[in-house]
Structures are given as C-alpha cells and as structure tokens.
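dude i think i finally got it to work??
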Amino acid sequence: MGTPTSGGDRKRHRRRLRIGLPIAAAAVAATVAGALLTSSAQAAETPPKPKVTAPSAQELQKRLEIALAGDDVAGQTSKKSLTSGRRATVDPKIIGGTTTTITKAPWMAQLWYGDDRGTTNTSDDIGFFCGGTVVSPTKIVTAAHCVKGYDWFNHGTIITGTSQLATDTDLHGGTRSSVRRQWNHWSYNASTIDNDIAVLTLDEPVSAKPLPMIPAGNTGSYTAGTAATVFGWGRTTSANDEISDDLKTATLPVQSDATCAGYYGADFVKSHMVCAGNPATGSDTGTTSACNGDSGGPLVVGGRLVGVVSWGVTDCVKSGAYSVFSKVTTYFGAVYPRVDDTNLSLDHNADLFARNSSTQTAYEFDSKGTSLAPRSSWGTWSGYNLILQADLDRDGFQDLILRRSSDGDVFWEHFVPASGTWATQLIGDNWKSRLSIVAPGDVTGDFLPDLVSVDSAGNLWINPGRGNGGIGASVKAATGWNNYNVVRGHGDFNGDGRADLIARNKTSGAVYLFRGRGVSGTSAFAPGLKVATWSNTTYNAFATVGDVNGDGKADLLARTPAGTLYLYRGNGSTGSVIFSAGISLGTSFKQYDLFG
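look at this
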C-alpha cells in the first residue's frame, strides 16, 4: 500500500488513484413523507419491528478513514492482460470534463470500502473507492468488480447527497449509510470483466432522487452518435495520481459496436458492453473523458442509467482508446429483481406471510431457499379477507396491503424507519367488489410499484403507484378477467425485468402467464401464454411473494387441498415452461386461509 500524504488544510489524506479498478482486466473505473392515516387497522397486535442490525456512526467513520487512506484496487486478480493487449493497468478519470453539482446528479453515490483486517498494523488494510448510482431509495447500482469478493456489510460506507468527496472530518452535507446486503451478477468474470454489474442494498432509505434504469429492449440509447453523460470523482489528468475533490461530468458520443470491437477486439463483448467518447489523442490535450470517471459510476442518456463504468486503457489517453461500460439494457432483467427484492427477514429470499383460519393468528415463514424456517407469530389479524406483501414506498422494508372484510377498505401497513414504528394509511375506499387484488411491482414502467385488481364485472384495473405508498386513479387494462378464479403476481416470471401476472381459468384450470410490457392502459400485458393446467382439485390456493430462492427470478407457491405447499421456482424462460419442478415446503398448510 502507498503511504498517504497529508492534505494540508484539507485535513484529509490525499488519495492516490487506486479507485475501484480490477488491475488484471483494466477495469475503469427517503424518509417516508406525507400524512399518515391512523385508521382502525384490525390487527390485535403491532407487527414486529424489522430485525435491522446496522453499524454505529463511529464504525462507519472508522471504515471511511481506512478507505480514504488506502490505495488498493477493487477486483484485483493475477491476470496481467487480455487478448488484445490493450487493457493492462487501467486508471479511472474524467479528462476534459467540467465540475458539476449534486443538484445536476442527485443520484450519485460514493462507495468507500475500508477493512483493517482485524489488526493494528495498517500495512494490511484494504481501502478503495468506487462510484455508484441510486436507483431506488435503498438500492445502489455499481460495477461487479467493486463488489465481488468484498464484504460490504462489515466494511462498506456509502455517502450520498453531496458533490464533494468525503474527508476524514467532513461529509460536506452528505448522508452516510451502511450496506445491508450485496449482489453481483452471477456470471461476472473477473478475468474478462464481463457481466460487470452489481447492486448494494442500504440499511435505510436515502433522500437522494433515484435515476431510473433503461429497460430491456430499449436499444435507441445505444445508437452511434447519441450524446451520453458520464459522472465521477476520478483523476482529471494523466500527469499525476490526484483525484478530484469535486464531482465532474463530461458528454461523450456513443460509439458503434463495430468501432469498439475494432479497437479492443475480442475483449469487447458487444451484447454486454457499450463504449463511448471520441478516440483519445494520446495526451490530455484533445481528450475528453476517455476513461469516463470512477468504476461503477453512471453513463446517462435521456434521464436514464444506460451504462456502468467498467474498463478502459492505461492512463485513459492512449491514442484511439474509448471508455467501456456495462450495457444496462442487457442486464435489466437480472438487476431489477434485486431492486424489488424486499422481504420480511431482510435477506435475498422472499418470505411467506400466512394467517390461520381458526385462530386468525398471522405467521411469518422465512425462506431458506428451498425450505421454510419455523413460523414466527405476528399476533391476531382478524377482520381482513386479503393480506399481501409489497413495498409501495421502495424503502426496503416490507409493507402489507390489507383489505377489511366489513367495508372493503384497503390499507397500506408500513414500517417508518425514522420513528421505528408502524403506520396505517387508507389507499382504497370500498374495494369490496374487487375479486382479486395483487401487488406485482412496477407494471407501468416508471419504477414505482403499482396495484392491480379485478372487479366483479371482470375489468382489470391498474392503480399506478406514487412511490410514497399512495396510488393513483384506476386505469382499465383489460376486460373478461372474471373468467379467472386466481389472479396473482409479484415480480418478473420471464426474465425481462417487467412485472407479470399469473391467472387460472376457473373452468378449464389452465394457468396463463400475462407478460408485463412496462406500460399502462390496454397494452400493459401481452396475451396470455398457457404455462400449466392445475384445477382446483390440484391446487386450491396460490401465493406469489417474489423470489423465494434468491436466484433473481419470481416464484410461485401452490397448496393442495390436503395442505401440502409446493414451491415452483421460476426459471426465467421466455417460453411456456416457466417453472422448475415443484418442491414440497411442508404438509400442514391446510390450516391457513390467507397467503401473501
């Protein structure tokens, strides 16, 4: 490790360039608001508080100081170069860019990693920095080489809400957060820096305005010549290792796949990567952001995240070089389920909520992947005929959607991190005639969770979410849905990152997948695709709670009349076989009348 030198009046260590780069492959680098209606929620007991274990402010400060003093390289491996020979040691920087403010890029995040390795000897410390993008109040998208192999829960500190880099003594008005869990793409290759994308989940929501991701299938943003914007705190010159204290930005033209492959050869994977910028000149003069900012930082087109800074060339100014980014549209189907993976136990696996029909006691069944942990009681929940899990305010804490039996009123029961208490808000007045109500996630494509319901006339309605727990006016999406006696949905069943619905015909028992298109109105769902035939004598209850086994694909739970509960794991298929073989989760589920 390099020895940090004093920053003088800046009162911080002046960090060298080692900013989140895999040396082997040349990687480049809300608090709930609004009035709460305390209505007569009929639960006899207050729901338990989420079991959150967060580090102290002192611990986060310690991690930050280690990271500030460090000069390590995220994702370092033993491989020296790749096939083209052009990606030997790569440094991140914005050269030729301009200073910007956090108001222009409120979603920017600083990712600081500081691990003292449990010793008093600073020579074995690990400290580095990466950039990231806030895509929802608790989710940060970054590069996999910044995450893979590191323990961000125990050693990470995230800072949002400021355009200035943190120092030992000053966050410059930023908010400091800890990481609850981490995910990187399962096919990330540290040697080739392929599939270089990851998600960090924060312990509590931040107030930073999220930047939405570009959805799957949207290729227009990658058209050659499109103006894209990159942001970062990296080096501003190839002449020295000093990084920028202030957030920088630059506008770059997107290059064609042929141009990128022409320079990088087989190292550039056109379906997974995009490159941008004019060819570097060989020096700082005439080069604008040839390496495009810190690893993990964003490339933005039209107000959406289209790329994640991944890799480039040594010193970022080598003649003819371009910056390379992970292509977000390719990974949307893999990443989005991680953005919408809130669950009761705060891990990667969706859990089951069920109520006993005789005692009206509700229980939490935490998923262990392909089995369920012993149930834990939530107390008596009488007077409801619907209970669903959701996260309508995207705060990372599981909410409940409840319908009161007496009048059909629908309530949003949610945890408020700021006060550590639960609150109840009326969101639907007299929905007694709704045959089905589901909380599938984002149906309309605006990254805000929606509600979908079927009325007694068979009309399918979408109530667009507002992102704060509230919902907008009903929008008709289809008719004839009174032909189905089961309508469920939570997440993406076919791997495109869009929320889908599952429905069963009440006469034939045919089960259909209605694929979400990410729009509102009558085009919201594609025509039904038959995926199974399960009559009421086969299964008489269903639940869709999300990704039960943690593989990024939505799953289905089905109960037999005798009480055996099966897990049907989603496999992400675009065809009709969307579930793997059923796995029994137990035989005692006949006693429950509500699942959610």
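The radius of gyration is 25 Å.
im so relieved honestly
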